[in-house]
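seq as requested:
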Amino acid sequence: MGNGRLDGKGNSEEAVREIDPDIKYEAAMCYLRGLCFSKQNAFDRAKECYMDAVRIDVQCFEAFDQLTKNCLLSPEEEWSFLESLDFDTVNAHSTTDSSQEAAQFTKMLYTTRLSKYKNPADFSNAVDSLSQHYNLASNPDILLSKAELLFTQCRFKQALAITAKVLDTDEYNFSFLPLHLACLHELHQPNALFLLAHRLADAYPEEPATWLAVGVYYLSIREIANARRFFSKASMMDPHFGPAWIGFAHTFALEGEHDQAIAAYGTAARLFQGTHLPQLFLGMQHLQLNNMTLAQEYLITAHGLCDSDPLLLNEMGVVFYHLDHLADAVQLFQKSLRIAQEIDSDPQVWLATRANLGHAYRRQHQWSRALREFEEVARRGSGTAGGGSAGKGG
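C-alpha coordinates:
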Protein backbone atom coordinates (compact mmCIF):
# COMPACT_ATOMS: atom_id res chain seq x y z
CA MET A 1 0.00 0.00 0.00
CA GLY A 2 2.16 2.81 -1.26
CA ASN A 3 1.78 6.46 -0.39
CA GLY A 4 1.17 7.23 -4.04
CA ARG A 5 -2.33 5.90 -3.67
CA LEU A 6 -3.17 8.56 -1.12
CA ASP A 7 -1.51 11.35 -3.11
CA GLY A 8 -2.66 10.88 -6.65
CA LYS A 9 -1.97 14.43 -7.83
CA GLY A 10 1.37 13.56 -9.39
CA ASN A 11 0.13 10.42 -11.17
CA SER A 12 -1.36 10.05 -14.61
CA GLU A 13 -5.06 10.57 -15.10
CA GLU A 14 -5.55 6.84 -15.65
CA ALA A 15 -3.83 6.02 -12.36
CA VAL A 16 -5.99 8.53 -10.50
CA ARG A 17 -9.16 7.02 -11.94
CA GLU A 18 -8.18 3.44 -11.20
CA ILE A 19 -10.04 2.10 -8.18
CA ASP A 20 -7.66 0.09 -6.03
CA PRO A 21 -9.69 -2.38 -3.97
CA ASP A 22 -7.07 -2.13 -1.23
CA ILE A 23 -8.11 1.48 -0.69
CA LYS A 24 -11.65 0.39 0.11
CA TYR A 25 -10.40 -2.30 2.49
CA GLU A 26 -7.97 0.04 4.22
CA ALA A 27 -10.66 2.70 4.66
CA ALA A 28 -13.10 0.07 5.95
CA MET A 29 -10.55 -1.13 8.52
CA CYS A 30 -10.00 2.43 9.74
CA TYR A 31 -13.78 2.86 10.00
CA LEU A 32 -14.16 -0.38 12.00
CA ARG A 33 -11.32 0.63 14.33
CA GLY A 34 -13.16 3.90 14.87
CA LEU A 35 -16.33 2.04 15.84
CA CYS A 36 -14.37 -0.07 18.33
CA PHE A 37 -12.76 2.98 19.93
CA SER A 38 -16.15 4.69 20.06
CA LYS A 39 -17.62 1.73 21.96
CA GLN A 40 -14.80 2.16 24.45
CA ASN A 41 -15.56 5.90 24.76
CA ALA A 42 -12.11 6.66 23.32
CA PHE A 43 -13.53 9.40 21.15
CA ASP A 44 -10.27 11.14 20.26
CA ARG A 45 -8.88 7.91 18.80
CA ALA A 46 -12.22 7.13 17.13
CA LYS A 47 -12.20 10.57 15.52
CA GLU A 48 -8.71 10.06 14.09
CA CYS A 49 -9.70 6.66 12.67
CA TYR A 50 -12.81 8.05 11.00
CA MET A 51 -10.83 10.97 9.55
CA ASP A 52 -8.17 8.57 8.24
CA ALA A 53 -10.88 6.45 6.60
CA VAL A 54 -12.27 9.46 4.72
CA ARG A 55 -8.80 10.68 3.75
CA ILE A 56 -7.97 7.26 2.32
CA ASP A 57 -11.30 6.88 0.51
CA VAL A 58 -13.26 10.11 0.22
CA GLN A 59 -16.35 8.04 -0.61
CA CYS A 60 -16.30 6.28 2.78
CA PHE A 61 -19.49 8.06 3.77
CA GLU A 62 -20.09 5.88 6.83
CA ALA A 63 -16.97 7.30 8.50
CA PHE A 64 -17.86 10.86 7.54
CA ASP A 65 -21.36 10.31 8.91
CA GLN A 66 -19.94 9.15 12.26
CA LEU A 67 -17.87 12.34 12.50
CA THR A 68 -20.83 14.63 11.88
CA LYS A 69 -23.72 12.92 13.62
CA ASN A 70 -21.71 12.27 16.79
CA CYS A 71 -20.31 15.83 16.88
CA LEU A 72 -16.71 14.66 17.01
CA LEU A 73 -15.47 17.79 15.23
CA SER A 74 -16.17 21.43 15.99
CA PRO A 75 -17.91 23.44 13.22
CA GLU A 76 -14.58 25.04 12.28
CA GLU A 77 -12.86 21.62 12.18
CA GLU A 78 -15.66 20.17 10.04
CA TRP A 79 -15.31 22.81 7.35
CA SER A 80 -11.51 22.69 7.47
CA PHE A 81 -11.58 18.90 7.12
CA LEU A 82 -13.97 19.12 4.17
CA GLU A 83 -11.63 21.53 2.36
CA SER A 84 -8.67 19.21 2.97
CA LEU A 85 -10.28 16.23 1.23
CA ASP A 86 -9.24 15.27 -2.29
CA PHE A 87 -12.56 14.88 -4.10
CA ASP A 88 -10.76 14.56 -7.43
CA THR A 89 -10.19 10.88 -6.60
CA VAL A 90 -13.93 10.22 -7.03
CA ASN A 91 -14.28 7.98 -10.09
CA ALA A 92 -17.37 8.14 -12.28
CA HIS A 93 -16.22 5.24 -14.54
CA SER A 94 -16.63 7.60 -17.46
CA THR A 95 -15.16 10.77 -18.95
CA THR A 96 -13.10 13.41 -17.22
CA ASP A 97 -16.08 15.75 -17.13
CA SER A 98 -18.25 13.10 -15.52
CA SER A 99 -15.67 12.42 -12.84
CA GLN A 100 -15.32 16.12 -12.10
CA GLU A 101 -19.08 16.40 -11.78
CA ALA A 102 -19.14 13.35 -9.49
CA ALA A 103 -16.46 14.96 -7.32
CA GLN A 104 -18.44 18.18 -7.06
CA PHE A 105 -21.63 16.24 -6.32
CA THR A 106 -19.92 14.33 -3.50
CA LYS A 107 -18.53 17.51 -1.98
CA MET A 108 -21.95 19.18 -2.04
CA LEU A 109 -23.54 16.15 -0.36
CA TYR A 110 -20.92 16.28 2.38
CA THR A 111 -21.43 20.04 2.75
CA THR A 112 -25.08 19.48 3.65
CA ARG A 113 -24.01 17.29 6.59
CA LEU A 114 -21.89 19.94 8.29
CA SER A 115 -22.77 22.25 11.17
CA LYS A 116 -25.38 24.85 10.27
CA TYR A 117 -23.70 27.44 12.51
CA LYS A 118 -20.93 28.06 9.97
CA ASN A 119 -21.01 29.24 6.35
CA PRO A 120 -24.80 29.27 5.82
CA ALA A 121 -24.30 30.71 2.31
CA ASP A 122 -22.16 27.73 1.22
CA PHE A 123 -24.71 25.36 2.71
CA SER A 124 -27.59 27.07 0.90
CA ASN A 125 -25.70 27.01 -2.42
CA ALA A 126 -25.06 23.28 -2.04
CA VAL A 127 -28.69 22.54 -1.19
CA ASP A 128 -29.98 24.68 -4.08
CA SER A 129 -27.66 23.00 -6.57
CA LEU A 130 -28.54 19.50 -5.37
CA SER A 131 -32.26 20.32 -5.40
CA GLN A 132 -32.38 21.94 -8.82
CA HIS A 133 -29.55 20.47 -10.88
CA TYR A 134 -29.77 16.93 -9.49
CA ASN A 135 -33.51 16.89 -8.76
CA LEU A 136 -33.00 16.01 -5.08
CA ALA A 137 -35.44 18.53 -3.64
CA SER A 138 -37.50 15.73 -2.08
CA ASN A 139 -34.54 13.66 -0.89
CA PRO A 140 -34.90 13.00 2.86
CA ASP A 141 -31.24 13.80 3.63
CA ILE A 142 -31.51 17.17 1.87
CA LEU A 143 -34.80 17.90 3.62
CA LEU A 144 -33.27 17.02 6.99
CA SER A 145 -30.40 19.44 6.36
CA LYS A 146 -32.89 22.18 5.45
CA ALA A 147 -34.89 21.52 8.60
CA GLU A 148 -31.74 21.61 10.74
CA LEU A 149 -30.82 25.01 9.31
CA LEU A 150 -34.31 26.33 10.00
CA PHE A 151 -34.09 25.03 13.57
CA THR A 152 -30.80 26.86 14.20
CA GLN A 153 -32.59 29.97 12.89
CA CYS A 154 -35.36 29.40 15.48
CA ARG A 155 -37.86 29.00 12.63
CA PHE A 156 -39.60 26.10 14.30
CA LYS A 157 -42.83 26.14 12.29
CA GLN A 158 -41.00 25.92 8.97
CA ALA A 159 -38.71 23.19 10.30
CA LEU A 160 -41.71 21.25 11.62
CA ALA A 161 -43.44 21.51 8.24
CA ILE A 162 -40.48 19.73 6.63
CA THR A 163 -40.09 17.02 9.26
CA ALA A 164 -43.84 16.38 9.33
CA LYS A 165 -43.92 16.05 5.53
CA VAL A 166 -41.20 13.41 5.57
CA LEU A 167 -42.70 11.51 8.50
CA ASP A 168 -46.10 11.48 6.77
CA THR A 169 -44.58 9.30 4.04
CA ASP A 170 -42.01 7.51 6.20
CA GLU A 171 -43.49 7.48 9.69
CA TYR A 172 -40.55 5.86 11.40
CA ASN A 173 -37.60 7.63 9.81
CA PHE A 174 -35.59 7.73 13.02
CA SER A 175 -33.02 10.23 11.72
CA PHE A 176 -35.79 12.86 11.63
CA LEU A 177 -37.32 12.10 15.01
CA PRO A 178 -35.04 14.08 17.39
CA LEU A 179 -35.47 17.25 15.32
CA HIS A 180 -39.21 16.64 14.87
CA LEU A 181 -39.64 16.14 18.62
CA ALA A 182 -37.65 19.31 19.38
CA CYS A 183 -39.88 21.33 17.03
CA LEU A 184 -43.07 19.96 18.61
CA HIS A 185 -41.72 20.82 22.06
CA GLU A 186 -40.71 24.36 21.04
CA LEU A 187 -44.16 24.93 19.52
CA HIS A 188 -45.94 23.57 22.62
CA GLN A 189 -47.80 20.68 20.95
CA PRO A 190 -48.18 18.04 23.72
CA ASN A 191 -51.10 16.31 21.97
CA ALA A 192 -49.03 15.60 18.87
CA LEU A 193 -46.15 14.44 21.08
CA PHE A 194 -48.47 12.09 22.98
CA LEU A 195 -49.83 10.46 19.81
CA LEU A 196 -46.39 10.04 18.26
CA ALA A 197 -44.85 8.64 21.45
CA HIS A 198 -47.76 6.21 21.85
CA ARG A 199 -47.38 4.89 18.29
CA LEU A 200 -43.62 4.54 18.65
CA ALA A 201 -43.91 2.71 21.97
CA ASP A 202 -46.31 0.20 20.39
CA ALA A 203 -44.32 -0.34 17.20
CA TYR A 204 -40.65 0.19 18.15
CA PRO A 205 -40.03 -0.32 21.88
CA GLU A 206 -36.42 -1.33 21.14
CA GLU A 207 -35.53 2.07 19.61
CA PRO A 208 -33.91 4.74 21.83
CA ALA A 209 -35.77 7.44 19.86
CA THR A 210 -39.07 5.94 21.08
CA TRP A 211 -38.24 6.68 24.71
CA LEU A 212 -36.79 10.05 23.76
CA ALA A 213 -40.26 10.84 22.35
CA VAL A 214 -41.91 9.71 25.58
CA GLY A 215 -39.47 11.83 27.59
CA VAL A 216 -40.09 14.91 25.46
CA TYR A 217 -43.86 14.46 25.90
CA TYR A 218 -43.55 14.35 29.69
CA LEU A 219 -41.19 17.33 29.56
CA SER A 220 -43.78 19.28 27.57
CA ILE A 221 -46.44 18.71 30.24
CA ARG A 222 -43.94 19.43 33.04
CA GLU A 223 -43.91 15.93 34.53
CA ILE A 224 -40.19 16.24 35.08
CA ALA A 225 -39.61 13.02 37.02
CA ASN A 226 -41.22 10.91 34.28
CA ALA A 227 -39.32 12.82 31.60
CA ARG A 228 -36.05 12.13 33.40
CA ARG A 229 -36.86 8.42 33.68
CA PHE A 230 -37.44 8.01 29.95
CA PHE A 231 -34.49 10.17 28.90
CA SER A 232 -32.37 7.97 31.14
CA LYS A 233 -33.83 4.85 29.52
CA ALA A 234 -33.02 6.15 26.03
CA SER A 235 -29.44 7.01 27.05
CA MET A 236 -28.93 3.55 28.57
CA MET A 237 -30.16 1.88 25.37
CA ASP A 238 -27.70 3.99 23.34
CA PRO A 239 -24.99 5.64 25.48
CA HIS A 240 -24.01 7.83 22.50
CA PHE A 241 -27.50 9.23 21.89
CA GLY A 242 -26.88 12.96 22.33
CA PRO A 243 -30.49 14.24 22.51
CA ALA A 244 -31.25 11.85 25.38
CA TRP A 245 -28.28 13.08 27.44
CA ILE A 246 -29.19 16.73 26.83
CA GLY A 247 -32.85 16.05 27.73
CA PHE A 248 -31.76 14.22 30.89
CA ALA A 249 -29.66 17.20 31.96
CA HIS A 250 -32.46 19.66 31.12
CA THR A 251 -34.77 17.92 33.61
CA PHE A 252 -32.41 18.79 36.46
CA ALA A 253 -31.98 22.35 35.19
CA LEU A 254 -35.75 22.88 35.07
CA GLU A 255 -36.08 21.81 38.71
CA GLY A 256 -33.25 24.08 39.80
CA GLU A 257 -31.06 21.09 40.67
CA HIS A 258 -27.99 22.87 39.40
CA ASP A 259 -25.34 20.49 40.75
CA GLN A 260 -26.96 17.46 39.12
CA ALA A 261 -27.60 19.40 35.92
CA ILE A 262 -23.93 20.40 35.81
CA ALA A 263 -22.89 16.76 36.27
CA ALA A 264 -25.21 15.62 33.45
CA TYR A 265 -24.14 18.38 31.07
CA GLY A 266 -20.54 17.52 31.93
CA THR A 267 -21.14 13.93 30.80
CA ALA A 268 -22.62 15.21 27.54
CA ALA A 269 -19.61 17.48 27.05
CA ARG A 270 -17.24 14.50 27.40
CA LEU A 271 -19.27 12.35 25.01
CA PHE A 272 -19.83 15.01 22.32
CA GLN A 273 -16.66 17.02 22.21
CA GLY A 274 -17.32 18.75 18.90
CA THR A 275 -20.55 20.52 19.85
CA HIS A 276 -20.60 23.69 21.90
CA LEU A 277 -24.06 23.09 23.39
CA PRO A 278 -23.07 21.18 26.58
CA GLN A 279 -20.45 23.84 27.37
CA LEU A 280 -23.06 26.54 26.71
CA PHE A 281 -25.55 24.89 29.06
CA LEU A 282 -22.84 24.46 31.72
CA GLY A 283 -22.11 28.16 31.47
CA MET A 284 -25.80 29.00 31.77
CA GLN A 285 -26.08 26.87 34.92
CA HIS A 286 -23.15 28.65 36.57
CA LEU A 287 -24.62 31.97 35.49
CA GLN A 288 -27.81 31.12 37.35
CA LEU A 289 -25.71 30.22 40.39
CA ASN A 290 -23.97 33.60 40.08
CA ASN A 291 -20.62 31.84 39.57
CA MET A 292 -19.44 34.37 37.01
CA THR A 293 -15.86 33.12 36.78
CA LEU A 294 -16.90 29.53 36.01
CA ALA A 295 -19.69 30.70 33.73
CA GLN A 296 -17.18 32.76 31.76
CA GLU A 297 -14.78 29.81 31.47
CA TYR A 298 -17.42 27.46 30.09
CA LEU A 299 -18.85 30.05 27.72
CA ILE A 300 -15.40 30.91 26.38
CA THR A 301 -14.79 27.19 25.81
CA ALA A 302 -18.10 26.99 23.94
CA HIS A 303 -17.11 30.07 21.92
CA GLY A 304 -13.90 28.32 20.91
CA LEU A 305 -16.01 25.52 19.43
CA CYS A 306 -18.62 27.75 17.81
CA ASP A 307 -18.34 31.54 17.57
CA SER A 308 -21.53 32.10 15.57
CA ASP A 309 -24.36 30.99 17.88
CA PRO A 310 -26.42 34.09 18.83
CA LEU A 311 -27.61 32.48 22.09
CA LEU A 312 -24.03 31.83 23.18
CA LEU A 313 -23.03 35.41 22.40
CA ASN A 314 -26.00 36.69 24.40
CA GLU A 315 -25.04 34.59 27.43
CA MET A 316 -21.44 35.82 27.20
CA GLY A 317 -22.76 39.36 27.07
CA VAL A 318 -24.81 38.77 30.22
CA VAL A 319 -21.70 37.54 32.06
CA PHE A 320 -19.69 40.58 31.01
CA TYR A 321 -22.61 42.81 32.00
CA HIS A 322 -22.61 41.41 35.53
CA LEU A 323 -18.81 41.74 35.67
CA ASP A 324 -19.25 45.44 34.80
CA HIS A 325 -17.41 45.05 31.49
CA LEU A 326 -20.11 47.05 29.74
CA ALA A 327 -18.24 47.82 26.51
CA ASP A 328 -17.57 44.10 25.95
CA ALA A 329 -21.18 43.29 26.81
CA VAL A 330 -22.45 45.81 24.25
CA GLN A 331 -20.20 44.32 21.56
CA LEU A 332 -21.44 40.79 22.27
CA PHE A 333 -25.13 41.77 22.31
CA GLN A 334 -24.65 43.64 19.04
CA LYS A 335 -22.84 40.70 17.46
CA SER A 336 -25.57 38.31 18.63
CA LEU A 337 -28.26 40.45 16.98
CA ARG A 338 -26.19 40.90 13.83
CA ILE A 339 -25.59 37.17 13.39
CA ALA A 340 -29.26 36.43 14.11
CA GLN A 341 -30.13 38.80 11.28
CA GLU A 342 -27.50 37.31 8.95
CA ILE A 343 -28.85 33.77 9.39
CA ASP A 344 -32.39 35.08 8.90
CA SER A 345 -33.50 34.07 12.37
CA ASP A 346 -36.88 35.06 13.74
CA PRO A 347 -36.41 38.57 15.26
CA GLN A 348 -39.06 37.85 17.90
CA VAL A 349 -36.80 35.23 19.50
CA TRP A 350 -34.06 37.78 20.17
CA LEU A 351 -36.09 40.43 21.97
CA ALA A 352 -34.39 39.54 25.28
CA THR A 353 -30.99 40.16 23.67
CA ARG A 354 -32.19 43.53 22.42
CA ALA A 355 -33.48 44.36 25.92
CA ASN A 356 -30.10 43.33 27.32
CA LEU A 357 -28.40 45.69 24.89
CA GLY A 358 -30.72 48.45 26.07
CA HIS A 359 -29.77 47.79 29.71
CA ALA A 360 -26.07 47.91 28.83
CA TYR A 361 -26.56 51.25 27.05
CA ARG A 362 -28.53 52.49 30.06
CA ARG A 363 -25.70 51.71 32.45
CA GLN A 364 -23.30 53.47 30.08
CA HIS A 365 -25.59 56.53 30.24
CA GLN A 366 -26.22 56.28 26.50
CA TRP A 367 -29.83 57.24 27.02
CA SER A 368 -30.91 57.73 23.41
CA ARG A 369 -29.49 54.37 22.31
CA ALA A 370 -31.03 52.63 25.30
CA LEU A 371 -34.40 54.21 24.58
CA ARG A 372 -34.22 53.12 20.93
CA GLU A 373 -33.64 49.48 21.92
CA PHE A 374 -36.41 49.49 24.54
CA GLU A 375 -38.84 51.07 22.08
CA GLU A 376 -38.01 48.35 19.56
CA VAL A 377 -38.68 45.67 22.20
CA ALA A 378 -41.97 47.33 23.14
CA ARG A 379 -42.97 47.60 19.47
CA ARG A 380 -42.31 43.94 18.73
CA GLY A 381 -43.76 42.56 21.94
CA SER A 382 -42.75 41.18 25.32
CA GLY A 383 -38.99 41.06 25.92
CA THR A 384 -39.03 37.75 27.72
CA ALA A 385 -38.26 35.53 24.73
CA GLY A 386 -35.19 33.34 25.06
CA GLY A 387 -31.76 33.86 26.50
CA GLY A 388 -30.44 35.20 29.79
CA SER A 389 -31.34 38.61 31.11
CA ALA A 390 -28.80 41.29 31.88
CA GLY A 391 -31.37 43.58 33.43
CA LYS A 392 -31.86 41.59 36.61
CA GLY A 393 -30.07 43.35 39.38
CA GLY A 394 -28.65 45.96 37.01
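Residues 1-18 have pLDDT under 50 and may be disordered.
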